[in-house]
Design a protein that fits this description.
The protein is of the alpha/beta class and 370 residues long. The chain is 33% helix and 27% strand. It folds into two domains: 141 residues, Rossmann fold (3-Layer(aba) Sandwich), CATH 3.40.50; 179 residues, Dihydrodipicolinate Reductase, domain 2, CATH 3.30.360.10. Helix 8 crosses helix 10. It starts with 16 loop residues before the first strand and ends in a 12-residue tail after the last helix.
Length: 370
């Protein structure tokens, strides 16, 4: 039996893990990379309400059964061990609770859910079912960011003095995103959960916790830009925070609708820079390809060291995150990145930013939000 605090007790699979994909939209193209040419898994089902989408996806998995709904999959009695849940955020709780109750381990697309009450019910359902809930965070598997963390942890930069994240969302370039995806995002914005701070921003808040641990205070100013009549985007936005270690971070979010950004995926230009007493390290890009310099650089003793051959294709982080999950199911070794409890901390971080902004930018303790 394998067990860690707050995770399921289960016997690791000694055979390929039988997996169903719940949702086959745009994000499927990234998550599926972990499953290709992987002898540790067997994709047994695809579930999506769009029949055309199922027809497009099914040739890759000729042995998989196709279902128009989660209920239809459950009623079929098909043997499933774990599911990839790739549905809109508002459906997360209902879908995840059903999957857990049916005895399936769950790898859930972020954000976990919109509020703490819903998150609590999801975690409670995983405990009750003794099945593992994972809220995947692919950025923790992006090699330039992994190099950044390794450099911080090595002590080479000296005592960390602070760090800065910058994100510019542009309106031109990148891959095609289905209109229905934007509809879901705009509906989220109307619920007070913006596409930049809450959805995409989940990644940035996750990396902050991963790099420097718990946060004790957050201050935020969340802006609004109307991009279409009645449709708003949550920028410009600035968030500052202090970790319990004393390290402070700043995250600047800018919207540049008319800027063209080269990207194979979404049009986000993202950067991280961590400064210590002895030098600094920075990640120059992630989702998009804005700065055409090495994706990771370290400055020490008057010299800049550049890393030119890292795997800085953003999609590789989805591949490696998914493989990590599958390996965990097969052996139960190592941290989940993230389990349910850690994902709740990311959610608290985001909610503290919203509460701070609503109260004029005052400091908010994430542990005090409700």
């Amino acid at each position: 039996m394998i067990g860690n605090p707050g995770v399921a007790q289960f016997v690791p699979f000694e055979r390929p893990v039988r997996v169903a994909f719940i949702g086959a939209g745009r994000i499927y193209d990234l998550n599926v990379r972990a499953y290709r040419e992987n002898d540790d898994v067997d994709v047994v089902a695809l579930v999506d309400a769009n029949p055309e989408r199922l027809r497009e996806r099914s040739p890759e998995w000729p042995g998989a059964q196709l279902f128009s709904s989660l209920d239809a999959l459950i009623e079929s009695g098909l043997a499933v061990d774990a599911v990839e849940v790739l549905v809109p955020i508002v459906a997360h709780e209902d879908v995840v609770v059903q999957c857990l109750a049916n005895g399936w381990h769950v790898n859930l697309q972020k954000p976990m859910t919109n509020d703490l009450a819903s998150a609590g019910r999801i975690v409670a359902a995983s405990v009750a079912a003794n099945r593992q809930l994972r809220v995947m965070e692919n950025y923790l598997f992006y090699e330039p960011l992994q190099r950044l963390k390794a450099t911080i942890d090595s002590g080479d930069l000296g005592e960390i003095q602070g760090y800065h994240m910058k994100m510019v969302a542009s309106g031109r370039g990148g891959w095609e995103v289905p209109f229905e995806t934007y509809v879901h995002q705009f509906e989220q914005a109307q619920r007070g959960r913006g596409i930049l701070l809450f959805d995409d921003g989940w990644h940035k808040l996750s990396t902050a916790l991963w790099l420097f641990g718990p946060v004790r205070e957050v201050r935020a100013w969340v802006g609004v830009t109307e991009v279409l009549p009645g449709v708003v985007v949550d920028a410009p936005t600035t968030i500052v925070w202090e970790h319990t270690s004393g390290v402070r971070g700043v995250w600047d979010i800018t919207l540049a609708l008319d800027m063209h950004l080269r990207s194979d995926y979404y049009t986000n230009d993202e950067r991280w820079e961590v400064t210590g007493r002895a030098g600094f390290a920075r990640v120059n890009r992630c989702t998009g390809r804005g700065i055409q310099q090495p994706s990771f650089e370290v400055y020490l003793d008057g010299e800049m060291r550049s890393f030119h051959s890292l795997d800085d294709d953003w999609a590789s982080s989805f591949r490696d995150s998914g493989r990590h999950w599958i390996t965990w199911l097969r052996g139960g070794n190592g941290p989940l990145l993230w389990g349910g409890d850690e994902a709740v901390e990311v959610l608290r971080f985001a909610l503290a930013a919203y509460e701070s902004a609503a109260r004029g930018g005052i400091g908010v303790d994430p542990n005090a939000v409700s």
